Amino acid sequence: MLVGVAQYVGRETDPTAAPDPLTMVADVATRAAYDSGVGNSLFAHVDTYFQIPLAYWTPANGAALAAERLGIDRRARVQNTGGGGEMGVLAANHLAAEITAGRTEVAVMTGGQIWKTFERAKAAGVELDWPTGGDPTGADERFAPVAKPMVSAIEERHQLTRPIQAYPLFENALRAAQGLSLAEHAQRLGQMMTEFTAVAAANPYAWFPTERSAEELATPTAENRMIGFPYTKYLNSVLNTDQAGAYVMTSVGKARELGIPEDRWVYWWGGHNAAEKAWYASTRPNFAECPSMKDSSVGALDQAGVGVDDIALFDFYSCFPIAVRMACAMLGIDELDPRPFTVTGGLPYAGGPGSAYNMNSIAAMVEQLREDDRSIGMVTGNGYFLTKHAAAVISARPKQGGWDRPQGPPPSAAMETAPANPEESAIGRGRIEAYTVMHDRDGQPASGYICGRLDGNGTEGQRFLANTPEDPDLLRDLLASEAVGRTGHVHQDPTTGKGIFTPA
Questions:
Q1: Statement to judge: residues 263 and 371 lie in one domain
Q2: What DSSP state is assigned to residue 54?
Q3: What residues pair up with 487 in beta bridges, in sequence order?
Q4: 3-state SS class at 432
Q5: Are 15 and 63 members of one domain?
Q6: Which pLDDT does position 1 carry in this prediction?
Q7: Residue 384 sits in the same domain as residue 450
Q8: Distance between CA 13 and CA 102 in Å, rounded?
Q9: C-beta neighbour count of 66 within 10 angstroms
Q10: pLDDT tens track for 65-93
Q11: Alpha-carbon distance values, 156 to 289, 374, 439, 440, 496 (Å)
């Protein structure tokens, strides 16, 4: 169970006055220990310490440095983690299983980001004196290492490598599958995400604590330029923040031994992790579905022994609106359900500190459940491009029954999961399945990305990945009306090796 949590947001504009990464994570871990009611003496009992690596901080072993600073026993399991926005929930699920099996008694997890301070220092020409070192022994051994790269070779060739390019593909595909017009869809995005801004506005740890209207979020302006259609700037995750979070997990027996008050206890009821069989974004058999998200979320509910209607509070990972909308679709929830979909304000408004957003979402959920000890909450995480997922169900009241997950086929059993690998040299007629138009810093259309299926010449159904010609009028035409289902022609650029799709 979770017995201590803490969050941090840094608002120091002078990079030389901001805390260094080691100080930040050690401080938030210490405050989590005090939140449990035990304080610094808790670290003498820690047998597992995990730390999500911070971008731009490159010590030999950051986790070992922090463990030493905190006074954690050298015999404890001390590891850096892999990357991905699911990491905080993934670790909580793992630690809960370890505690249940009796292999762990007291665990501390930390993570954060100090990207904004790094950027400010770079802009000012200031060299930051951040701690280095850490026992390199075991530094290469990580909890949940990444097994595959984020993007494939053909995606690299087409420059489909960034979240701002990939997530809109799924968003446009889901919109078309739902039969929404472009105007209806923009209104839907604004309606859903304005609720997130309201939560962020009341969150003292939010990076942008500003409430915005649905129209303000969804309407392109000079301040809110279009980035990757259909997402304006205000609908994109903000990563360059100074934020951190920590949680402490223990067994019930150890919590009693340490004298942790029961009003601090929030029980882990169930969790599940899953990853797409079609690992790369361009290989998804259906861009309007996410089988592994369904498996992780429904799997967590099944292990917890509850249904989605029993959940009072959600925090759906929200790097882009599609992550929330896809979660709703996979769980069968109305996107305008009155229950909150975030307890922080989400990554575009509360902030998304690299792979560590779940450190804040778990902490915020624990605090809310302590206030309403009859409620049940669900927290989810999402890594890469809707690729890796984790979900956990927690509550301040004890779970009845055991933790055995129901046996049987996965919830995604009826869904297509096999990769649809793009043809390396696709040529011929094709039909668009998913697309986006990227815009420049002036908000003007600059480039197009197309995923589709070939049609004809014996290639029926073969996936292709392509860019569009560098034609602003063509790009504006793609923005004017629904392009999913539109036909055109694919050819190969002999110079770049890229597929080029020209709409008919």
A1: yes
A2: P
A3: 431
A4: strand
A5: yes
A6: 97
A7: no
A8: 45
A9: 26
A10: 999 999 999 999 999 999 999 999 999 99
A11: 23, 49, 19, 20, 12
> In the 8-state DSSP scheme, what is residue 308?
G
**CB neighbours of 486 closer than 8 A, spacing ≥ 6?**
431, 432, 503, 504
What is the reported pLDDT for 366? 98
Distances (CA, A) of 356 to 111, 247, 291: 5, 12, 24
- Are 370 and 438 in a shared domain? no
Please state, in angstroms and rounded to a whole number, the distance separating the CA atoms of residues 342 and 361.
8
**421 in any annotated domain:** no
Widest distance between CA atoms in the chain: 73
401 conformational bin, left if phi > 0, alpha if psi -120 to 50, beta if neither: left
Give whole-number Cα distances, 16 to 52, 111, 123, 161, 303, in Å.
23, 21, 13, 33, 47
Beta partners for residue 113, in sequence order = 243
Q: Residues, the chain, total?
A: 504
For 130, list phi and psi in degrees, rounded to 5.
-85, 150
- Residues near 442 by Cβ (< 8 Å), separated by ≥ 6? 225
Terminal C-alpha separation, the chain: 58
Q: String of b and e for 78-107 (b: at least 16 CB within 10 Å)?
A: bbbbbbbbbbbbbbbbbbbebbeeeebbbb
Q: What angle do CA 471, 474, 476 make, to 5 degrees?
A: 110
Q: Please state, in angstroms and rounded to a whole number, the distance separating the CA atoms of residues 412 and 416.
A: 8
In a domain, 449, yes or no: yes
Pairwise CA distance, residues 474 & 191, whole Å: 30
402 within a domain of the structure (yes/no): no
Q: Which amino acid is at 50?
A: F
> Total domain count for the chain?
2
- Classify residue 125 as exposed, middle or buried by CB count within 10 Å of its CB (0-12, 13-18, 19+): exposed
- DSSP helix/strand/coil, 131: coil
What pLDDT does residue 406 have?
Answer: 79
Q: How far is CA 271 from CA 303, 305, 404, 451, 465, in A?
A: 7, 11, 11, 33, 35
**Domain boundaries, position 484:** 428-503
d(CA 68, CA 61): 11
Tokens of 122: 């770079």
Closest alpha carbon to 274 in 406, 174, 381: 381
- Same domain, residue pair 337 and 441: no
Q: For 469-494, how does the pLDDT look when each residue is reduced to its tens digit (9 = 90+)?
A: 989 999 999 999 999 999 999 999 99
Tell me the three state secondary structure of residue 7.
strand
Please give the angle made by the CA atoms of 364, 267 and 45, to the nearest 5 degrees.
90
Which CATH number do you get for residue 116? 3.40.47.10
